[in-house]
Amino acid sequence: MRMLVVGSVAFDDIQTPFGVKKNVLGGAASHFSIAASTLIEPKIIAVIGSDFPEKYLKYLAKFGIDTSGIEKSSDKTFHWSGFYEHDMAVAHTRSTELGAFATFEPKLTEEDKLRQVLFMANIDPVIQYKVLKQMKNPQLVGLDSMNFWIESKKKDLWKVIKEVDILFLNDAEVRMLAGESSLIKAAKAIQKQGPDIVIVKKGEHGVMAISHNHIFVSPAYPTEKVIDPTGAGDSFAGGCMSYLVANSQPGKKISDDLLRRAVAWGSATASFAVEGFSTDGVAKATEKNVEGRVATLRKLTSF
């Protein structure tokens, strides 16, 4: 199955206790697609500005990622600036400049519309819905979002959520979206609206995957080398979705066993993402070394 990824390709300015980086490659679609490239070859639908260097497009293509769907605008590239203090689980935003994303209207080719798998990374839910409505017959649809869209465009976000198979959110976002303090109750309330699977990202505390009759909890891989957590959630989603795509049949229900293995693969992939600035960490993830970390996770949770 071939996957289409809709999201941001951007510049990031990042400051952590380990250094400062400016104008590095960022964006949810970048992190997601590099993470997914260990198992599949995704295609990105995004927009960049006239200030975006060719070297970054070549860098993405090096991973087997199809960049032909990245549109070039005369405006500036989406630019996020933020910093982390010693609690690396919390990102503090300094500025967000939408640039070309403010007027982005994704255009899919006829081949794109026929793709069986769609992942909509964290962008405006209005854009996500426009993409979804162009798809002819997707067999698996994943969605990520954030607190900003829950607060500012909740109605539009629910419209998209009702039509997806898998929803990726962090624990605070799940509670905010459902209006419930209990995480399990919140996830089940969201499921009733459409998604078969709700995956709750809990950072260094791991992941919870909730399907209709099943709950699975995976720890995060115990890495000591946390340099930059930017994009870790996107990398998790990329690892998880790519594993499902590589190991399932079109239209066939995702089994609880497959979901568990996909979550573990995503957790192991995300552990590489935090070990370097920008996409440097996740770029080092290979099928072989991700398998090694999955084996460690299996030992950690066996008793």
> Which quaternary structure do these chains form?
single chain
Q: Taking Cα atoms only, what radius of gyration do you get, to the nearest Å?
A: 18 Å
Distance between the termini: 35 Å
Count of helical regions: 11
Major sheet size, sense and barrel closure: 9 strands, mixed
Order of helices and strands: EEEHEHEEEHEHEHHEHHEEEHHH
Q: Strand share of the residues?
A: 15-25%
Estimate percent helicity.
25-40%
The overall pLDDT average reads 93
Index terms:
36% helix, 4-stranded mixed beta sheet, 303 residues, alpha/beta
Can you give a write-up of this model?
The protein has helices spanning 28-36, 54-61, 110-113, 125-134, 147-152, 154-161, 171-178, 183-191, 232-247, 256-273, 287-300, and strands at 3-6, 10-16, 19-26, 43-48, 70-72, 79-83, 92-97, 117-120, 140-144, 166-170, 197-201, 207-211, 214-218. It has 303 residues and is α/β, with parallel strands linked by helices. Strands 5-4-1-8-9-10-11-12-13 form a 9-stranded mixed sheet, sandwiched between helices. A 4-stranded mixed sheet has the order 3-2-6-7. Strand 6 (79-83) and strand 7 form a beta hairpin. Helix 10 (256-273) crosses helix 11. The chain starts with a strand and ends with a helix. The model has no long low-confidence stretch (mean pLDDT 93).
